[in-house]
Amino acid sequence: MRELFFISLICLFISCDLEKKPIASKVNIIPQPQSIEFMDGQFILDQNTRICGDKELEDEMNFLADLIGLKSTFRPKVENMIREKGSCIIFQKVEAKHDEYYEIDVQAHALQISAKSRIGFLHAIQSLRQLFPANFNGDEKLIEKSWAIPSVKIADQPNFKWRGMLLDCCRHFMPKEFVKRYIDLLAYHKMNVLHWHLTEDQGWRIEIKKYPLLTEKGAWREGKDGKPYGGFYTQEDIKEIVDYAYSRGISIVPEIEMPGHSVAAISSYPHLSCTGEQIPVETEWGVFKDIYCAGNDQTFEFLKDVLDEVMLLFPGEYIHIGGDEAPKFRWENCSKCQKRMDEEGLNDEHELQSWFIQEIENYLSSKGRILIGWDEILEGGLAEGAVVQSWRGVNGGIEAAKERHDVIMSPTSHCYFDYSLKSIDLEKVYSFNPIPEELAEDKQHHILGAECNMWSERAPFELVDSKVFPRILAMSEVLWSAPFNRDFDDFYKRVQEHYPRLSALGVDYGLETDPISFATYFEDGLRLQFHKGIPDLDVFYSRTDSHPTPSDLRFDDFIPIDKNEQIFAQAFKSGKTYGEPLAVEVKHHLAIGLDPKYDFEWSPYYTGGGKRALTNGLIGSLDFRDGNWQAVQFDDVECVLDLGGKEVQTIESHFYQYNNSWIFVPEWVEYAVSENGEEWELLERIASEHAPEESGKFIQVFNTSFEPRKVNYLKLKAKNIQYCPDWHEAAGSSAWLFIDEIQVR
Ligand code: ACM
Ligand code: ZN
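That is the input. Now the predicted structure with zinc ion docked in place:
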């Protein structure tokens, strides 16, 4: 009995001892530090640990103490004396070339953080957070008595100075707490700029005391249910957010759009537009022709007043004034704008836009601020001190850097996180190089860095996480880590380890890539092939089950197709479904696999998959970016199929309309046949059933049928309407024609 008692007592001691010893997690930091050295051992942080350093570092030391206090039974004491003995986290200043430089040295008895500046200490704290186990992060209440931090030596600094994200709080209003949460998430990944998009056609989001209607009226649009939809930030909200961002080392760059994307302001104060007409706050997405009147002095009085209040709220050097997507239609037809052009000796409306931006640039620079604008501000001449944000590719950025202007890169190809994973996935973002190869070395220093853009047309705040994450992890590494430290495979592994941290932070992250893409090809008949977005996926498919499981067929090589079929596929990662199931519709017909002879050049942006886009059995959907549509701007579509005498009875082709995106169905479609490919017999000219004015996205089918006949050559011609009509927001711009699949039966 006594023996038993002693044995139990020993067990109790052992188990207590085990319970006490925390285990350090694997080291896995995103973005990857410049230098990291691994050592044996770990630092134990518990109630005896003090945080010690100079008084001037008290805010940063308290930030760390608070983070620890939230998750522990203790909050470490912050002291201004460095201890000789005992467990200690030491904050110490260090000389370094780079302002953001920091070091972390974790030894068994002391953990030292050294940095040159406040910002460096904040970066060090963020790296340190990632040295804790995943459950150290986030708001979940968790109380630990002690923590283990692995022994490492880190020396680190960023590769680019500007590491930003644009958050569009206009298309959908995002609550104050949500914005603060994003500030935390940016800081956690060492991003340092929040580009805050605050004014738009669909809503004005910043309180301006001198112009109360901007938020009384301009912050609200008619919602889908007919009720006012929107919101705005009071000046108190903004001060709170700006202070919060400062405490996390994030600069906020406010964007006040001009001269375009200004419908909400014009709706509040109609005298600011060329027509002076009362218009509602926009409810649709797009580019709108009502913009600020450049001939009206009151426009500039208004904008300068607004900027005065903006500058009081935002202490940072940079103010973004938009400048993108400003149609010149109103200016062309406005006597005040035309008079201004005469007086100022301006040759066209692009020069008028340039003059407009220069007025604002002069004003901002007189107040010691720097203007940023989208790359359209290059058109008609770039204002002297302006910084260019290049979004329509990188060429605007190259041109600006050549003219010795600073540049922020945000090309749609890599940086638009509102775009689907089909066009921008994790690996694509990781492959981004903000410095274009063709830029001369002596101009490269003008590339300050880059921004990822989270436009919110299709993303109310509930969806933002799934679009931003995990892609922003790639962007943070592109901008922070040295090129020699960047390896996608290694990064990908670290991302997998990072997910538990994101989960603890409450991030509802999305996928890394489009799980399954598909294509057909022609070899001994038509074949369907699935491509996995990442190698570690399994794909299962079914002809009947719309949610295939691993008990369905496993996809290996290809699926032969000899009739119209619908095939469902589902990807699995580590046994769990990855993404939504995919439904692929394949049409089998007589023209499958033929190479049409084209008499038009399709756009490189909408190839439909190339020369067999119209004969591959895949049909374009209501998503005109689905990869199946082939498109041409301004020109007609004309092509010939060599059917080799096959018996034909029906012909059908599809065209797309979405006039917001300048896409119109053709005026008419003609089908003609020929014996020799030279003399043609017209089968039918089919007029469009839809007017260009018809809104929304839809597909028109142009089909014809006739008595069965043998056909050698078949020609299709579709007439482009050529210009966006007069009533259109982009009146006079070249119209798009989108075609898919010529189905012959
Ligand atoms: C932009 O995407 N219009 C800058
Ligand atoms: Zn005007």
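The longest helix spans residues 2-20.
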